[in-house]
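Progress note, project year one: complex with D-gluconic acid.
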Amino acid sequence: MSNALFDLTGKVALVTGATHGLGMAMAEGLGNAGAKLVITGHSSQEKLDSAVAALRDKGLDAHGYLFDVTEEAVVADMVGLIEQEQGPIDVLVNNAGIIRRVPLLEMELSEWNKVIETNLTGVFTMTRPVARRMIERGAGKIINICSMMSELGRDSVSAYAAAKGGLKMLTRNMATEWARHNVQVNGIGPGYFATSQTAPIRVDGHPFNEFILSRTPAGRWGNPEDLQGTAVFLASEASNFVTGQIVYVDGGILATIGKPGNE
Ligand code: GCO
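Model obtained:
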Protein backbone atom coordinates (compact mmCIF):
# COMPACT_ATOMS: atom_id res chain seq x y z
CA MET A 1 0.00 0.00 0.00
CA SER A 2 1.36 3.42 -0.90
CA ASN A 3 2.61 5.36 2.09
CA ALA A 4 1.36 8.46 0.28
CA LEU A 5 -2.02 7.65 1.80
CA PHE A 6 -0.60 8.54 5.20
CA ASP A 7 1.73 11.34 4.08
CA LEU A 8 0.95 14.74 5.66
CA THR A 9 3.69 16.64 3.82
CA GLY A 10 2.45 20.12 2.95
CA LYS A 11 -0.39 19.94 5.45
CA VAL A 12 -0.90 22.27 8.44
CA ALA A 13 -2.08 20.47 11.58
CA LEU A 14 -3.37 22.44 14.58
CA VAL A 15 -3.51 20.62 17.93
CA THR A 16 -5.12 22.38 20.89
CA GLY A 17 -3.86 21.87 24.42
CA ALA A 18 -0.64 20.34 23.09
CA THR A 19 1.97 21.69 25.51
CA HIS A 20 2.26 18.24 27.11
CA GLY A 21 0.76 14.75 27.35
CA LEU A 22 -1.47 13.24 24.69
CA GLY A 23 -1.76 16.46 22.68
CA MET A 24 1.97 16.87 22.35
CA ALA A 25 2.43 13.20 21.47
CA MET A 26 -0.23 13.41 18.74
CA ALA A 27 1.37 16.61 17.42
CA GLU A 28 4.73 14.84 17.24
CA GLY A 29 3.16 11.94 15.35
CA LEU A 30 1.53 14.30 12.86
CA GLY A 31 4.82 16.14 12.45
CA ASN A 32 6.71 12.89 11.85
CA ALA A 33 4.21 12.20 9.05
CA GLY A 34 5.21 15.50 7.43
CA ALA A 35 2.75 18.08 8.79
CA LYS A 36 3.65 21.63 9.79
CA LEU A 37 2.56 21.87 13.44
CA VAL A 38 0.57 24.58 15.14
CA ILE A 39 0.08 23.89 18.83
CA THR A 40 -1.92 25.94 21.29
CA GLY A 41 -1.83 26.51 25.01
CA HIS A 42 -4.10 28.65 27.13
CA SER A 43 -2.25 29.66 30.29
CA SER A 44 1.53 29.70 30.07
CA GLN A 45 3.62 31.23 27.29
CA GLU A 46 6.64 29.56 28.91
CA LYS A 47 5.09 26.08 28.69
CA LEU A 48 4.02 26.76 25.09
CA ASP A 49 7.46 27.99 24.08
CA SER A 50 9.06 24.98 25.77
CA ALA A 51 6.77 22.57 23.90
CA VAL A 52 7.48 24.27 20.56
CA ALA A 53 11.22 24.10 21.27
CA ALA A 54 10.98 20.40 22.14
CA LEU A 55 9.18 19.66 18.88
CA ARG A 56 11.68 21.75 16.91
CA ASP A 57 14.54 19.87 18.64
CA LYS A 58 13.06 16.73 17.04
CA GLY A 59 13.39 18.39 13.62
CA LEU A 60 9.71 19.29 13.36
CA ASP A 61 8.29 22.53 11.94
CA ALA A 62 6.36 23.73 14.99
CA HIS A 63 4.69 27.02 15.95
CA GLY A 64 2.80 28.01 19.10
CA TYR A 65 -0.18 30.27 19.77
CA LEU A 66 -1.49 31.14 23.24
CA PHE A 67 -5.26 31.49 23.54
CA ASP A 68 -8.31 29.99 25.24
CA VAL A 69 -10.45 27.87 22.90
CA THR A 70 -13.59 28.88 24.83
CA GLU A 71 -13.29 32.58 23.95
CA GLU A 72 -15.17 32.71 20.65
CA ALA A 73 -14.08 36.18 19.49
CA VAL A 74 -10.45 35.48 20.32
CA VAL A 75 -10.59 32.12 18.54
CA ALA A 76 -11.95 33.73 15.36
CA ASP A 77 -9.09 36.26 15.35
CA MET A 78 -6.46 33.64 16.14
CA VAL A 79 -7.65 31.30 13.38
CA GLY A 80 -7.31 34.18 10.93
CA LEU A 81 -3.83 35.01 12.23
CA ILE A 82 -2.70 31.39 12.16
CA GLU A 83 -3.87 30.89 8.57
CA GLN A 84 -2.22 34.18 7.58
CA GLU A 85 1.10 33.22 9.22
CA GLN A 86 1.20 29.44 8.72
CA GLY A 87 -1.16 28.69 5.87
CA PRO A 88 -4.59 27.04 5.63
CA ILE A 89 -5.39 24.67 8.51
CA ASP A 90 -5.86 21.21 6.98
CA VAL A 91 -6.17 19.23 10.23
CA LEU A 92 -7.68 20.33 13.54
CA VAL A 93 -7.22 18.15 16.63
CA ASN A 94 -9.50 19.29 19.47
CA ASN A 95 -7.52 17.95 22.41
CA ALA A 96 -7.71 20.76 24.99
CA GLY A 97 -9.59 19.57 28.08
CA ILE A 98 -9.72 19.50 31.85
CA ILE A 99 -11.01 17.06 34.45
CA ARG A 100 -12.40 17.56 37.94
CA ARG A 101 -12.78 14.38 40.00
CA VAL A 102 -15.57 15.32 42.45
CA PRO A 103 -18.67 13.28 43.43
CA LEU A 104 -21.67 14.77 41.65
CA LEU A 105 -23.51 15.79 44.82
CA GLU A 106 -20.42 17.63 46.06
CA MET A 107 -19.53 19.40 42.81
CA GLU A 108 -19.92 23.17 42.63
CA LEU A 109 -21.92 24.47 39.66
CA SER A 110 -18.91 26.57 38.70
CA GLU A 111 -16.76 23.41 38.47
CA TRP A 112 -19.43 21.66 36.36
CA ASN A 113 -19.69 24.65 34.03
CA LYS A 114 -15.90 24.90 33.64
CA VAL A 115 -15.57 21.23 32.64
CA ILE A 116 -18.48 21.39 30.17
CA GLU A 117 -17.30 24.74 28.79
CA THR A 118 -13.73 23.58 28.19
CA ASN A 119 -14.27 20.01 27.03
CA LEU A 120 -17.47 20.43 24.99
CA THR A 121 -18.33 24.06 24.29
CA GLY A 122 -14.68 24.76 23.59
CA VAL A 123 -14.82 22.33 20.67
CA PHE A 124 -17.87 24.22 19.36
CA THR A 125 -16.11 27.60 19.57
CA MET A 126 -12.75 26.35 18.28
CA THR A 127 -14.04 24.27 15.40
CA ARG A 128 -16.56 26.54 13.67
CA PRO A 129 -14.16 29.21 12.30
CA VAL A 130 -11.77 26.46 11.16
CA ALA A 131 -14.56 24.40 9.59
CA ARG A 132 -15.93 27.43 7.69
CA ARG A 133 -12.56 27.84 6.00
CA MET A 134 -12.19 24.09 5.34
CA ILE A 135 -15.65 24.09 3.72
CA GLU A 136 -14.66 27.06 1.52
CA ARG A 137 -11.61 25.07 0.41
CA GLY A 138 -13.58 21.85 -0.03
CA ALA A 139 -11.46 19.70 2.26
CA GLY A 140 -10.49 19.24 5.90
CA LYS A 141 -9.93 16.82 8.77
CA ILE A 142 -11.26 17.34 12.28
CA ILE A 143 -10.35 14.98 15.13
CA ASN A 144 -12.09 15.35 18.50
CA ILE A 145 -10.40 13.72 21.49
CA CYS A 146 -13.10 11.79 23.31
CA SER A 147 -12.59 9.36 26.16
CA MET A 148 -13.53 6.06 27.80
CA MET A 149 -16.03 8.36 29.49
CA SER A 150 -17.70 8.87 26.11
CA GLU A 151 -19.02 5.33 26.67
CA LEU A 152 -18.64 4.47 30.37
CA GLY A 153 -19.38 6.17 33.67
CA ARG A 154 -17.14 6.22 36.69
CA ASP A 155 -17.49 7.62 40.22
CA SER A 156 -16.45 11.27 40.56
CA VAL A 157 -16.15 12.22 36.85
CA SER A 158 -19.79 13.05 35.99
CA ALA A 159 -19.11 16.45 34.41
CA TYR A 160 -16.21 15.03 32.38
CA ALA A 161 -18.33 12.05 31.25
CA ALA A 162 -21.22 14.31 30.29
CA ALA A 163 -18.86 16.48 28.27
CA LYS A 164 -17.07 13.58 26.58
CA GLY A 165 -20.37 11.80 25.90
CA GLY A 166 -21.65 14.98 24.34
CA LEU A 167 -18.42 15.32 22.35
CA LYS A 168 -19.05 11.89 20.83
CA MET A 169 -22.42 13.05 19.54
CA LEU A 170 -21.09 16.48 18.51
CA THR A 171 -18.49 14.60 16.46
CA ARG A 172 -21.22 12.61 14.73
CA ASN A 173 -23.27 15.74 14.03
CA MET A 174 -20.32 17.69 12.67
CA ALA A 175 -19.64 14.66 10.46
CA THR A 176 -23.27 14.66 9.31
CA GLU A 177 -23.37 18.35 8.40
CA TRP A 178 -19.92 18.65 6.82
CA ALA A 179 -19.35 15.36 4.95
CA ARG A 180 -20.97 16.85 1.84
CA HIS A 181 -18.14 19.44 1.88
CA ASN A 182 -15.41 16.77 2.05
CA VAL A 183 -14.67 17.61 5.69
CA GLN A 184 -14.27 14.43 7.70
CA VAL A 185 -14.90 14.61 11.45
CA ASN A 186 -13.88 11.70 13.68
CA GLY A 187 -12.96 11.08 17.30
CA ILE A 188 -10.19 9.30 19.13
CA GLY A 189 -11.15 7.74 22.45
CA PRO A 190 -8.01 7.14 24.51
CA GLY A 191 -8.17 4.45 27.16
CA TYR A 192 -6.16 4.96 30.32
CA PHE A 193 -2.83 6.61 29.48
CA ALA A 194 0.22 7.51 31.51
CA THR A 195 -0.01 11.31 31.58
CA SER A 196 0.01 14.12 34.14
CA GLN A 197 -3.81 14.04 34.04
CA THR A 198 -3.86 10.45 35.33
CA ALA A 199 -0.78 10.70 37.53
CA PRO A 200 -2.82 11.08 40.76
CA ILE A 201 -4.66 7.77 40.14
CA ARG A 202 -1.70 5.89 38.66
CA VAL A 203 0.84 5.83 41.49
CA ASP A 204 2.11 2.37 42.47
CA GLY A 205 -0.15 0.81 45.05
CA HIS A 206 -3.06 3.16 44.27
CA PRO A 207 -6.16 0.92 44.02
CA PHE A 208 -7.14 2.55 40.73
CA ASN A 209 -3.76 1.70 39.23
CA GLU A 210 -4.27 -1.97 40.08
CA PHE A 211 -7.84 -1.79 38.81
CA ILE A 212 -6.89 -0.36 35.42
CA LEU A 213 -4.09 -2.90 34.94
CA SER A 214 -6.63 -5.68 35.54
CA ARG A 215 -9.44 -4.00 33.57
CA THR A 216 -7.25 -3.45 30.50
CA PRO A 217 -6.78 -6.67 28.46
CA ALA A 218 -3.38 -5.37 27.26
CA GLY A 219 -2.40 -5.27 30.95
CA ARG A 220 -0.77 -1.84 30.85
CA TRP A 221 -1.45 1.89 30.80
CA GLY A 222 -1.24 3.45 27.34
CA ASN A 223 1.81 5.42 26.33
CA PRO A 224 1.03 8.75 24.56
CA GLU A 225 2.87 7.46 21.48
CA ASP A 226 0.22 4.73 21.18
CA LEU A 227 -2.15 7.41 19.81
CA GLN A 228 0.10 8.60 16.98
CA GLY A 229 -0.87 6.04 14.34
CA THR A 230 -4.60 6.64 14.77
CA ALA A 231 -4.09 10.41 14.68
CA VAL A 232 -2.10 10.15 11.43
CA PHE A 233 -4.73 7.84 9.90
CA LEU A 234 -7.62 10.19 10.73
CA ALA A 235 -5.59 13.22 9.55
CA SER A 236 -4.59 11.66 6.21
CA GLU A 237 -6.03 10.77 2.81
CA ALA A 238 -6.32 7.20 4.11
CA SER A 239 -9.50 8.17 6.01
CA ASN A 240 -11.28 10.19 3.29
CA PHE A 241 -14.39 7.97 3.44
CA VAL A 242 -14.32 7.63 7.25
CA THR A 243 -16.42 10.15 9.16
CA GLY A 244 -18.44 10.20 12.36
CA GLN A 245 -16.42 7.37 13.84
CA ILE A 246 -14.86 7.26 17.31
CA VAL A 247 -11.71 5.12 17.25
CA TYR A 248 -10.98 3.80 20.75
CA VAL A 249 -7.30 3.29 21.50
CA ASP A 250 -7.83 1.55 24.82
CA GLY A 251 -5.87 -1.71 25.03
CA GLY A 252 -9.17 -3.59 24.82
CA ILE A 253 -11.08 -2.02 27.74
CA LEU A 254 -14.34 -1.49 25.83
CA ALA A 255 -14.15 -5.00 24.33
CA THR A 256 -14.56 -6.78 27.64
CA ILE A 257 -16.60 -7.03 30.84
CA GLY A 258 -13.31 -7.72 32.62
CA LYS A 259 -12.28 -10.74 34.64
CA PRO A 260 -12.46 -11.80 38.31
CA GLY A 261 -9.64 -10.44 40.39
CA ASN A 262 -8.08 -13.85 40.99
CA GLU A 263 -7.38 -14.64 37.31
C1 GCO B 1 -10.32 9.16 35.10
C2 GCO B 1 -9.32 9.36 33.99
C3 GCO B 1 -9.99 9.24 32.63
C4 GCO B 1 -8.94 9.25 31.56
C5 GCO B 1 -9.48 9.23 30.16
C6 GCO B 1 -10.04 7.89 29.86
O1 GCO B 1 -10.29 9.91 36.08
O2 GCO B 1 -11.13 8.22 34.96
O3 GCO B 1 -8.67 10.61 34.10
O4 GCO B 1 -10.90 10.31 32.49
O5 GCO B 1 -8.16 10.37 31.67
O6 GCO B 1 -10.41 10.24 29.93
O7 GCO B 1 -10.41 7.86 28.50
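The radius of gyration is 18 Å.
The beta strands are 12-15, 36-41, 62-66, 91-94, 140-145, 183-190, 246-249.
No further modelling is planned for this target in the current period.
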